[in-house]
Amino acid sequence: MSNTPHEIHDEFPEYADKMHALKVSDERFAKMLEDYRDVNRAIHRSETEVEPVGDVEMETMRKQRMVLKDEIYGMLTKA
Question: What is the DSSP letter of 51?
């Protein structure tokens, strides 16, 4: 278990400029970044036992983060 947050800009540093451009020009992309940040922070709080959750909820949050990350990456590579 990692106690390091998986910030999206750390996941795709090579797309920093595209990420910023899409964030300001595409509401859907901006919302996905916000959703990723929220679920990522919830996972980090749970992993560090600030706000513990059960195994099922943790798995659900991790899957949600993975789906968002895939969608964000897809939009970055098509932009």
Answer: S
Number of domains composing the chain: 1
Q: Would residue 5 count as lying in a domain?
A: no
- 6 phi-psi bin (left φ>0, alpha ψ -120 to 50, beta other): beta
The verdict on residue 22 lying in a domain is: no
Report pLDDT digits (tens) over 16-48: 999 999 999 999 999 999 999 999 999 999 999
Indicate whether 4 belongs to any domain.
no
Question: What's the pTM?
Answer: 0.89
Provide CB contacts within 8 A for 44, sequence distance 6+.
3, 4, 5
The tokens describing 63, both together, are 């899957």
54, amino acid identity:
G
On whether residue 59 sits in a domain, the answer given is: yes
Specify whether the CB–CB gap between 46 and 58 falls below 8 A: yes
